[in-house]
Amino acid sequence: MAEKTGVKVKESTGYIVFKWFNTAIMILVCAATLYPFLYLVAQSFSSEEAITLGKVSILPVGFNLETYKSVFEKGEFMHSYKNTVVYSILGTILSLVFSCCMAYPLSKKELKGYKLLTKFVIFTMYFGGGLIPNYVLMMKLHLVNHVAGFIIPSLLSTYYIILMKSFFAETPHELEEAGELDGLSPIGIFVRIVLPLSMPIIATMILFNAVGYWNNWYNAFLYLDKKEMWPVAYYLKTVISGASTSADPGEASAEKMQIAANIRSCSMVLMALPIICIYPFISKYYVEGMMLGGVKE
Description:
The protein has helices at residues 13-44, 48-52, 66-73, 75-106, 114-126, 131-140, 147-151, 158-169, 173-181, 186-197, 199-215, 218-223, 232-245, 254-292. By secondary structure, the protein is mainly alpha-helical. Helix 4 runs antiparallel to helix 11.
């Protein structure tokens, strides 16, 4: 407004100092956040000698692709990668559907048993059956060495349900009443009115669940004994362990020593790359979902 009227507002000295200080802090935070990842990328492309001597910073030294070639040439890696894609897509879709079906009714205080159901959901956040009872249950349900054995244990998160419940509770009640007057059923109101208005929280949940399933190796460790069913996270964990144990100079060739030196960095880069590529497309919805879901008037 000041620019349109031709009036220039003089900034105070304190405000100028604040802006410069703020900028400097943000630059330091960004540098501290980016440096570890840039270091991993550089290390994954560097030679074993450069890594051993500590010459690698944020640029590769002794550029090589031996580790990446070794990983990609193995059929097990690509098969595990495909498994992870399938598990992540199925798990994210199912988790989103079940979370929505549970969170939306809980957002209605007129629901019979509202307080009891809410307390029961919160109770599960703090108390669980434990590892052995969970494993026995999976055995009894015949879900060990089954895709469902990987997906179901992480299907519902109490935190995600509460987050979605808070967001759904802020949907204008007048819109739902208008839907009722138009003859929509409760399911129709949810699908045709509530969901289109809830894209920020939906995108947030897609990101959370996709990242969770993509990085999940623990469920595979517990419930998947067949190697052909392993996700890439668990496969790379076993490769890293194998590379570490084969790094003895007296037993390993130069190529194996090279792979053992930077395979950790290579695996981390390969694991993080898909999520890094997807995040920019949904970051706007992610921020909106996190903020709108927790603000109450």
